[in-house]
Amino acid sequence: MELEGRGAGGVAGGPAAGPGRSPGESALLEGWLQRGVGRGASGGEAGACRPPVRQDPDSGPDYEALPAGATVTTHMVAGAVAGILEHCVMYPIDCVKTRMQSLQPDPAARYRNVLEALWRIIRTEGLWRPMRGLNVTATGAGPAHALYFACYEKLKKTLSDVIHPGGNSHIANGAAGCVATLLHDAAMNPAEVVKQRMQMYNSPYHRVTDCVRAVWQNEGAGAFYRSYTTQLTMNVPFQAIHFMTYEFLQEHFNPQRRYNPSSHVLSGACAGAVAAAATTPLDVCKTLLNTQESLALNSNITGHITGMASAFRTVYQVGGVTAYFRGVQARVIYQIPSTAIAWSVYEFFKYLITKRQEEWRAGK
């Protein structure tokens, strides 16, 4: 519905003037007049103006255009919820991935595929064994993903305005994803170390506090960040590929950037699969650094494995080139639904929070 254009005389009466005008129309027109937009062209009638088209209330607000001052909070809340749900739902597959990346697994922990591994773990070690360590993962995922998405959204917009004003820049998307990874991994790395040690076959740790205490006492505080550089080396290219692929697919499947669950799920799944397959060798090295796998340590290696170069060398010595791709099937299977869940939940909560903010502002 389009509001009626008013001449100079109509405007002079003020927004409250005029027969039959509802309070909502008066408020909308008043705000429009105060902003001074919609003036007629120089060749038009003096003082003539044309108010903007009113948005269909059923269509909802543009969730990409968040209210000023609430953007960071919205992104952090939506990101935290998305991260926790993603890790909780996919945690059993993550447990399988960690075990399948073992360089010299125990004979009882050699698995042919993801489903067989999950079935054997449940049958031989108990129904809840694949969930051990979930609590520390959820605790770390909340703040890590809050920082991750808030940083990404802020930098994406800032860099896009510089590189490609008024448009979308793949370079900006990739760069924003890389910087966001620095914050995410700094918050998540200690939880990753504890989680993966609890996931390993015959892990001596049944509680998070036992694992944290043992690592601290035996290896020092630095052990919680031993794999940080390798994690960054893996996640920086992973997130660059991930975000660039996601934004590229969104341009094709959702060019208007509206809330579209199917496009978010499809784009997220494809982006996760591509990025996961490309960075599997780095993930294998990260797992080795986190777990300090005893059988690998006994393979002509003395002391703790520290640093990416040492991890790469150990992986090759123990299993050759093929060892770099251990668990690639589980990693891709994990990432496809994982990134689909993360993006769809994130976009949903971003849309929901934005809609509530707009409704609150409209009711003031």
UniProtKB/TrEMBL annotation:
Compositional bias segments (type: Gly residues): 1-17, 37-46
Lipid bilayer topology: Multi-pass membrane protein
Biased composition (Low complexity): 18-27
Solcar repeat ranges, renumbered to this chain: 70-158, 168-252, 259-352
Keywords per UniProt: Ion transport, Iron, Iron transport, Membrane, Mitochondrion, Mitochondrion inner membrane, Repeat, Transmembrane, Transmembrane helix, Transport
Gene Ontology terms, MF aspect: ferrous iron transmembrane transporter activity
Region (Disordered): 1-61
Subcellular localization: Mitochondrion inner membrane
One Gene Ontology CC term in the entry: mitochondrial inner membrane
Catalytic activity: Fe(2+)(in) = Fe(2+)(out)
Domain of life of the organism encoding this protein: Eukaryota
UniProt cross-references to Gene3D superfamilies, sorted A to Z: Mitochondrial carrier domain (1.50.40.10)
Entry keyword annotation includes Ion transport: yes
Pfam families the UniProt entry points to: Mito_carr (PF00153)
GO biological process: iron import into the mitochondrion
Record-linked InterPro entries: MCP_dom_sf, MCP_transmembrane
Role, per record: Mitochondrial iron transporter that mediates iron uptake. Probably required for heme synthesis of hemoproteins and Fe-S cluster assembly in non-erythroid cells.
Similarity-based family: Belongs to the mitochondrial carrier (TC 2.A.29) family.
Protein known as: Solute carrier family 25 member 28
Organism field: Catagonus wagneri
